[in-house]
Every structure is written in structure tokens, then in C-alpha cells.
């Protein structure tokens, strides 16, 4: 097999949540445990950090990976989904797993599976690949981002040094539960005995769930936003954010530079800083200089894509993968703080979620370009446009994301803004 044939096998032959939705979700870790045993429990050969949450977990994972790299650790990073290349999911020190290594690993699995007879999902097999590749490359530590939920996620066989849960929002309610408390219960599944857990956002509905789980497992719990907060921020001439960060009311990181844009990153800084505190208590050697250098260069160091990413100027063009209610709230708030004459909003979503709550949040003054991403799960653009009319959102339907993008580029004035979002898949097609 070559690389293209390997991806064709993984994308078309294995159940894949991104493509088929809930049908690919497994309610057991049985396949993951079988794969882990057959590959010799590779995740036990290096240290790990586990990151879950409804929003922000990707940014937090990349920030931590950047910090660990700056401190001299050979660092694995597992995230999902990918935007442009499957190999974005599996990186070591910011470098994607080589195509040849992906081909060899999948070929080896297929040969062995003649005997094993395991029928993994796309996600289960990808997690097994990451674990094994990291072990083969003898990394020091891996930052593992949860794919969906926590309790039943394939990454949840690790015993990390620190667990992080960024926040809880209403997303994937058909799988995780229809209340914040139920979803928190699923996310709390990554909490383990003796492993400190950092909560990024204190919420009255979810804090009791996390406290109860931590007490049950006799482990320490820290609500990082009760210790750290961004007291002040500004946008520098080089396009990076400059933050003043306080701890318990005292300035501890004045003029901290972050290259990730969007005010919502202010919520992601506290769990990162608290996790670094705890890692140092566990014997890691992470200095303030390491931390500052790392946060100023997260994108360059790790290759993070799609988080308030500026992809053009004159007109300002931004894409963001935020897609659930909380994510869209943060995007809309950021749009309010962005200068433009007219907003051109390229928008698409998936069809297995009710878009009503998201549509209700979107700015009514924008010109909308309704699209359907090139996946089976995507909502039909005509249907989306009709739903949007109920919320006072007016625009036109386009047969593809790229046609909408080209049209927006043609008609937008230099002082306008083009925003691309609503779905990871919409952003992926533009990138």
C-alpha cells in the first residue's frame, strides 16, 4: 500500500465518527484494550498528560506540548480531528508522523489482524498507532487529547501525571447526555486515583460532579480559574497577544506573550499554568523562561491550525473551528471586538445536531454564505439556509465551500471581514 491507499482504507473501511457520526461511537474500551495488549502496552513506556473538555482542549494540548518541548522533553502530541493531513493527529516535537511510518504501521496491523480478528473504529486504530509510534520513537512524554467524552474514549487507558478538563458545554448530547451534569460525568471518567486533576472553568452545575469524583478516587482537584486569571491583555503590533496574568490576585506573569489569538484563549491559560505547577511538583524541570518562550511560539512549535487563524488581510480573513454553542459564543464575542466595515460569514454545520441554538447566536448584520462541507454528515446548505431565516440570518446558498470562499473574496471590500466557520470540515476545506 502507498500512503493514499492507506488513508483510503482507514477513511472508508473503518467506522469513523467524523464521517458517519454516532454510528461510529463505541460504548466500550474492549477494542482499545485488545490493541494495547497486542502491541505490548506501549503507552506505559513514557509519561503522559491527559486533556479533555468541550472547548479549548486542543489549544491547551498544543500549549502544553510547546511548553514541554521548550523545556527539552521529546514530546508526543495526539489530537483530533485533523484539518489538512491525517498526520496532524500524531506529532513528535511538532513534526508529523512520516507518511512511510503510517503506511508501514497500517500494513503491519492488517497482517497481524488476520490472526487477531479485531474490528476497530478509525479512532481506536489511530490511538493505537499513536501509542505505538510514540513508544517506538522513545519519547519522554505525550500530551493526549480526548476525542469525544472521556470515560469511553480510546485515550482513557493511560495513567497520566496530570489530568485536565477545560470546561463543559452542551455538545454531542445524543451520546454524552442532555445536561451539563451528565456530560461532566462522562468527562470526569478521565479522573484517576492519585492523579491530580485540573478543571479549567468553574461551573455551578459541574463543579459538584468533579469534586465528588475526585473525592471518590481520593485524588486532588484544582479549579485553575480560581487561582489564575488574565487581568489585562492587548494585541501587539506583531499580531500576538500580550497578557498580564495574576495568581490569587498577585501579578505573576506580566507581559506574557501568546501567539494564539482570540479572547477565549484567556480561559485556556489558567489550566495550562496550573498543570505546569503540578508537573514541576512531580519532578519536571520547566522554567519561567521555557514557559514564556513556548507560549509565544505555539503555532510555530506545534503547527496548530484553525483557532482564530488569520489566513488573509485586506480583507481580514479568519477561520475558526468552534462549532458548538459555547464555541460560537466565544467567536461572536471576538467578532464584536474586531474592526470591519461589513462581515461576510461562510457557514456550514453537521446534520446530526440541531443548529438552532448556534444560529440564534450568530450576528444578524452579516452577509451569509451557506455551504455544505464535502462529507456525508454535513447539513444540506438549502436546509441550513431555511433554518437560518427563522433567526433573521440572510444569505445565499453555494454548491461548495470553496465556491463560497471565492465569491466572498471577489465581493468583499478591503475594509470588510470574511469569517469561515461553523464546522471543522468547512474550515478544513478552506485551509
From TrEMBL:
Q: List required co-factors.
A: Mg(2+)
Which biological process annotations from GO are given for this protein? Answer: folic acid biosynthetic process
Domain Mur ligase C-terminal spans what residues? 306-423
The record's EC number reads 6.3.2.12, 6.3.2.17
Which catalytic reaction applies to this protein? (6R)-5,10-methylenetetrahydrofolyl-(gamma-L-Glu)(n) + L-glutamate + ATP = (6R)-5,10-methylenetetrahydrofolyl-(gamma-L-Glu)(n+1) + ADP + phosphate + H(+); (6S)-5,6,7,8-tetrahydrofolyl-(gamma-L-Glu)(n) + L-glutamate + ATP = (6S)-5,6,7,8-tetrahydrofolyl-(gamma-L-Glu)(n+1) + ADP + phosphate + H(+); 7,8-dihydropteroate + L-glutamate + ATP = 7,8-dihydrofolate + ADP + phosphate + H(+); 10-formyltetrahydrofolyl-(gamma-L-Glu)(n) + L-glutamate + ATP = 10-formyltetrahydrofolyl-(gamma-L-Glu)(n+1) + ADP + phosphate + H(+)
Keywords linked to the UniProt accession: ATP-binding, Folate biosynthesis, Ligase, Magnesium, Metal-binding, Nucleotide-binding
Limits of the Mur ligase central domain: 51-269
Q: In which pathway does it act?
A: Cofactor biosynthesis; tetrahydrofolate biosynthesis; 7,8-dihydrofolate from 2-amino-4-hydroxy-6-hydroxymethyl-7,8-dihydropteridine diphosphate and 4-aminobenzoate: step 2/2; Cofactor biosynthesis; tetrahydrofolylpolyglutamate biosynthesis
Gene3D superfamilies given in the database record: Mur ligase, C-terminal domain (3.90.190.20), Mur-like, catalytic domain (3.40.1190.10)
Is the Electron transport keyword given for this protein? no
Q: Does the keyword Ligase apply?
A: yes
Entry GO MF terms: ATP binding; dihydrofolate synthase activity; metal ion binding; tetrahydrofolylpolyglutamate synthase activity
Annotated Pfam families? Mur_ligase_C, Mur_ligase_M
Cellular component terms per the entry's GO annotation: cytoplasm
Protein role: Functions in two distinct reactions of the de novo folate biosynthetic pathway. Catalyzes the addition of a glutamate residue to dihydropteroate (7,8-dihydropteroate or H2Pte) to form dihydrofolate (7,8-dihydrofolate monoglutamate or H2Pte-Glu). Also catalyzes successive additions of L-glutamate to tetrahydrofolate or 10-formyltetrahydrofolate or 5,10-methylenetetrahydrofolate, leading to folylpolyglutamate derivatives.
Q: Which family does it belong to?
A: Belongs to the folylpolyglutamate synthase family.
Q: What is this protein called?
A: Dihydrofolate synthase/folylpolyglutamate synthase
Amino acid at each position: 500500500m502507498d500512503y493514499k491507499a492507506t488513508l483510503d482504507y482507514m477513511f472508508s473501511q473503518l467506522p469513523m465518527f467524523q464521517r458517519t457520526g454516532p454510528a461510529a461511537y463505541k460504548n466500550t474500551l474492549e477494542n482499545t484494550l485488545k490493541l494495547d495488549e497486542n502491541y505490548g502496552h506501549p503507552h506505559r513506556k513514557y509519561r503522559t498528560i491527559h486533556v479533555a473538555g468541550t472547548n479549548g482542549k486542543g489549544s491547551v494540548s498544543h500549549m502544553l506540548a510547546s511548553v514541554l518541548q521548550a523545556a527539552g522533553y521529546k514530546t508526543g502530541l495526539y489530537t483530533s480531528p485533523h484539518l489538512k493531513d491525517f498526520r496532524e493527529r500524531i506529532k513528535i516535537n511538532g513534526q508529523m508522523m512520516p507518511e512511510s511510518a503510517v503506511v508501514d504501521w497500517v500494513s503491519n496491523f492488517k497482517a497481524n489482524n488476520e490472526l487477531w480478528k479485531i474490528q476497530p473504529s478509525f479512532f481506536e486504530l489511530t490511538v493505537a498507532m499513536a501509542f505505538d509510534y510514540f513508544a517506538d520513537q522513545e519519547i519522554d512524554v505525550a500530551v493526549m487529547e480526548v476525542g469525544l467524552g472521556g470515560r469511553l474514549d480510546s485515550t482513557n487507558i493511560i495513567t497520566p501525571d496530570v489530568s485536565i478538563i477545560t470546561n463543559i458545554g452542551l455538545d454531542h448530547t445524543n451520546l454524552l447526555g442532555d445536561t451539563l451534569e451528565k456530560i461532566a460525568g462522562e468527562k470526569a471518567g478521565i479522573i484517576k486515583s492519585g492523579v491530580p486533576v485540573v478543571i479549567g472553568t468553574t461551573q455551578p452545575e459541574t463543579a459538584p460532579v468533579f469534586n465528588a469524583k475526585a473525592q471518590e478516587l481520593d485524588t486532588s482537584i484544582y479549579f485553575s480559574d480560581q487561582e489564575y486569571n488574565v487581568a489585562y491583555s492587548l494585541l501587539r503590533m506583531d499580531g500576538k497577544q500580550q497578557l498580564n496574568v495574576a495568581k490569587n490576585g498577585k501579578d505573576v506573569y506580566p507581559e506574557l506573550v501568546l501567539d494564539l489569538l482570540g479572547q477565549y484563549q484567556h480561559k485556556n491559560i489558567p489550566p495550562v499554568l496550573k498543570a505546569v505547577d503540578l508537573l514541576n511538583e512531580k519532578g519536571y524541570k520547566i522554567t519561567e523562561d521555557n514557559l514564556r518562550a513556548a507560549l509565544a511560539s505555539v503555532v510555530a512549535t506545534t503547527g496548530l491550525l484553525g483557532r482564530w487563524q488569520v489566513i488573509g488581510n485586506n480583507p481580514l480573513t479568519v477561520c475558526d473551528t468552534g462549532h458548538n454553542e459555547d464555541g460560537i459564543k466565544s467567536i461572536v464575542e471576538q467578532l464584536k471586538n474586531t474592526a470591519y466595515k461589513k462581515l461576510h460569514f461562510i457557514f456550514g454545520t453537521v446534520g446530526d445536531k440541531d443548529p438552532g441554538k448556534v444560529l440564534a447566536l450568530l450576528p444578524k448584520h452579516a452577509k451569509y454564505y451557506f455551504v455544505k462541507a464535502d462529507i456525508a454528515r454535513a447539513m444540506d446548505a438549502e436546509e441550513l439556509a431555511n433554518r437560518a431565516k427563522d433567526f433573521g440570518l440572510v444569505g445565499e446558498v453555494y454548491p461548495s465551500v470553496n465556491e463560497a470562499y471565492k465569491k466572498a473574496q471577489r465581493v468583499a471590500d478591503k475594509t470588510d471581514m470574511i469569517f469561515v466557520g461553523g464546522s471543522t470540515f468547512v474550515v478544513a476545506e478552506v485551509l
